[in-house]
Specification:
There is one protein chain. The protein is mostly helical. It is about 75% helix and about 0% strand. Helix 4 packs antiparallel against helix 5, helix 8 crosses helix 10 and helix 11 runs antiparallel to helix 12.
Length: about 280
């Protein structure tokens, strides 16, 4: 035991502090903004696409119903990693093709080079890749949200909707004042699962050349034998991945706490199974 305490007392705390506070580690800590930003913006897009998809699937218009049903059915079956790569790449190529048609000569267009001229070159920054990644996440998990919202809208007791109609509300008023507000209490458990899946998918941002926490963990943990870099160590990647493991567990715990609070809030005034009003 004395040896254990002696080892603790002799540990180089100043060196460890200098190591974890150098410029590269500060960049790692700052890269958390990409992960949290992608999660929040991706969730906003997913909720928006989910509401649109669920509404279209419920529509009496055959074309709208077909589009909404197709979006929900097909997108849920596409791996998110493929969608995350495909959408930004397809969008980038589409823009370059449009620029090429506007700015490049017919001779240049007939060549084998791509882009055919400098004016058609569209170099994306990290911000642009980040925004497209958020839209990609929104499209993928919006299909899951749409499925959850569609089921939650059917779970609202029909008596509530019939009562609203009896009071003279129009179908639009019934939707926005009765149907959607009561739908959330049934949708939140499913939406919390979608949020957890989206949160895990933020670890794929590095595929789009975004220096997120996963890419920095790979860089910092890789074997480094250059003393001038202040990072002289062997393969420490497992240590950095362990930190990411704990980071995502912390986000999960915070998310679960937030959804519990939100569920209690939206349940206020709603009838429970025992006939009591929640809240």
């Amino acid at each position: 035991m004395d040896t254990f305490f002696a080892a603790i007392a002799e540990y180089d705390y100043a060196g460890a502090l200098a190591y974890i506070s150098n410029g590269k580690h500060l960049s790692w800590y700052a890269s958390v903004r990409w992960t949290l930003g992608a999660a929040v913006l991706g969730a906003i897009f997913a909720l928006m696409f989910g509401l649109i998809g669920a509404t279209m699937k419920r529509s009496s218009n055959p074309l709208s119903h077909m589009i909404g049903s197709g979006y929900i059915a097909m997108v849920r079956g596409i791996p998110d990693v493929l969608f995350l790569i495909f959408f930004p790449l397809a969008f980038e190529i589409g823009v370059e093709k449009l620029l090429a048609q506007i700015h490049c000569s017919p001779t240049e267009l007939a060549g084998a080079l791509w882009p055919p001229c400098d004016a058609a070159q569209w170099a994306l920054s990290s911000i642009e890749y980040f925004l497209m990644a958020c839209v990609s996440l929104g499209l993928v998990y919006g299909a899951f949200c749409a499925n959850v919202i569609y089921g939650a809208m059917h779970a609202v007791p029909k008596g509530q909707l019939e009562a609203a109609t009896a009071y003279g509300m129009t179908s639009r008023q019934t939707l926005y004042r009765v149907h959607l507000p009561q739908m959330w209490v049934y949708a939140l458990p499913g939406l919390s699962n979608v949020w957890m899946l989206l949160l895990k998918a933020t670890s794929l941002l590095s595929l789009l050349q975004i220096a997120d926490i996963v890419q920095w963990a790979e860089r910092l943990g890789a074997p480094n034998y250059f003393a001038f870099a202040g990072m002289l160590h062997g393969d420490w990647r497992w240590r950095y991945y362990l930190v990411l493991f704990l980071f995502y567990i912390l986000l999960t715990l915070i998310s679960e706490w937030g959804f519990r609070k939100l569920t209690r809030r939206v349940s206020r005034g709603m009838a429970t199974e025992g006939g009591q009003n929640a809240g």
